[in-house]
Amino acid sequence: MSESKQENRIALLEMQVSEFWSGDIGLTLVSIALVVLIFVILPLRQAGTTGRVFLDLVIVTLMISGTLVVKQSRIVTAGVVALVIFAASMLWVSRFYPTLFLRQLSSALSVLVMLVYVRIVLLVMFRRGHVTWSRIQGGVCAYLLLGLAWASAYHLVEQVHPGAFHFVSSPATIDELTDKLIYFSFATLTTVGYGDVVAVSPYARSLAIGEAIVGQLFPAILIGALVAMAMRAGASPKPAAASVSAD
């Protein structure tokens, strides 16, 4: 009897999470959280860690709920949830105990989690239905996640090979290094490039080339997919009205 109640609770939770994401609220909240994190919390890091902790909790919660919605085996779902929780834990442990190994591990896990979550966002975004504003926000969200994933990859390269990047003004702390690499990542993703941060080592240059290519192809492919999705939804046959024959 207790097992059946537990199964009913799990089924109810999954249904509620599915309704949350089916209304596109999840994509909107993820986009808002990422925008606040990138453009507010990170530049104003000296204001304290309270906002960063709250945003991290929101993003991790949305990651887990989005994972539960995507149709995949329970083993894969459990693995992704465990990966997200473990990566978030290592990120904060490395902030309080900044050893080289923990920083490298947290950077590697961040890259993996960001790429996994890009996949989840795109799967939720391209499910059946009409193209809505929230789905467009999902594309922006995936684009921002790619920028953060590359920033974590740059961070890992700089830690493994110190001097992989040349800075006009060298970062004094690990937080300054993170901020500068996030800035460099989005400058590269949008192919702007101001020259104040330069990839020097072959590994860093290869990553930068890959990000620049993705930054050009991703929006074009995404827009094409959304247009095709809108045309397919508009061309779908509508249920015909029942005809009444007079005898």
Q: How many individual helices?
A: 8
Roughly how much helix do the residues carry, as a percent range? Answer: over 70%
- Name the helix and strand elements from N-terminus to C-terminus, one letter apiece: HHHHHHEHEH
How many beta-strand runs? 2
* Highest CATH level, the class: Mainly Alpha
Q: N-to-C terminal Cα separation, in Å?
A: 57 Å
Number of domains: 1
CATH architecture: Orthogonal Bundle
Find the structural class using helix and strand composition: mainly alpha
Provide the gyration radius in Å: 21 Å
Instruction: Give the low-confidence spans.
Output: 239-247
Give me the CATH fold name. Answer: Helix Hairpins
Q: What fraction of the residues are assigned to beta strands by DSSP?
A: under 5%
Mean model confidence by pLDDT: 79
General form? globular
Major beta sheet, specifics? 2 strands, antiparallel
Spatial order of the strands in the main sheet?
1-2
Defining key terms:
Helix Hairpins; mainly alpha; two-stranded antiparallel sheet; 247 residues; globular; disordered C terminus
